[in-house]
Amino acid sequence: MLKLRQEKSVVLFNVPQKDADMRLDRLLGTYFSAASFGNVQKLCRKGLIKIDGKRVKDNGTKVMADQEISVPLSLVEGGDKQEDKAKKNTYQLTNVDKKAMQDMTIYEDDHILVINKPYGVPVQAGSGHSKSIDRMFEAYYGADNAPKLVHRLDKNTTGCFLMAKTREAAHNFIEAFKKRDMEKTYWCVCRGRLREGEGTCTMRLLKQGGKGNERVEIDAEGQTATTHWRKITSSADYSWVEAKPKTGRTHQIRVHMAYLGAPLIGDVKYGGDKGRAGQEFPKNKMFLHAREVSFDHPITGKRMKFSAPIPSHFETVFGLMGWSADDAKS
Description:
Blueprint: E1 5-7, E2 10-14, H1 24-31, H2 37-45, E3 50-51, E4 54-55, E5 68-72, H3 73-77, H4 82-88, H5 95-104, E6 105-108, E7 112-117, H6 133-141, E8 148-149, E9 158-164, H7 167-178, E10 183-191, E11 198-201, E12 205-208, E13 215-218, E14 227-235, E15 238-245, H8 252-259, H9 268-271, E16 288-296, E17 303-307, H10 312-321
Parallel strand pairs: 9-16
Antiparallel strand pairs: 1-2, 2-5, 3-4, 3-5, 6-7, 7-9, 8-9, 10-15, 10-16, 11-14, 12-13, 14-15, 16-17
């Protein structure tokens, strides 16, 4: 439970140990009903939220354990979500869940965990979701020992996902992502035969909408976004593409591929009708897979590289198209 202290029109509290390295907007949204993404963003722009007495301009700022957060009283009066959060975060693992968690583990040591994230399971539970990666692993390891989230994958993206088992590892992982020291390779199946065999997309991206309703647009005022891509092979009107994002913007690969005229299959949000799968494809599936990740171990510094087996909906399409994983090696 948060220990809140009121001073005139502001409320102060210290960041709990378990919430270290969380984004400020997510932290506030976890505890206060009025702390929507848009509301927190607006308050930050006005300088009404402070960390250790200093105004915060970026609602995505990472918080550290024991830092003092100051927020307007109005944010707190909207309701305290701590009791509801405790109830919602209780996820009862089934034997099927436990087996699935063992199967999805690619690598584990005392500091890090690498998993093959399954399709359709969000990394962090939100509205309408009780099952999520963070809640499953909290139930498996216990609240005090649960691996920490250090990055994100969309609910319908599969593949390599990193978690930290210690505070030091979490901090170093987050710094590595900031410095772009991570090398990530994604596979996607797109509709449209790209004119070139490879290239780089550098269109700036601007995120709009609150949590759960994010939409990203290409906009000159947006953040720099760079994606290197290579067409592995194609058949009919479909292309299998390898994408290597050098930045980690929300929906980056999806937006960039749609801009190039080859939206991901199953991505109607950015591809419109062109993103709809043909009748021969698995229904209601989006084709984006985090195939490989390479990084320096956050504690030992040793270079590590992992790959995630492709999910069943990819296997189905590869079979239909006559593609083989060996094609990616050429």
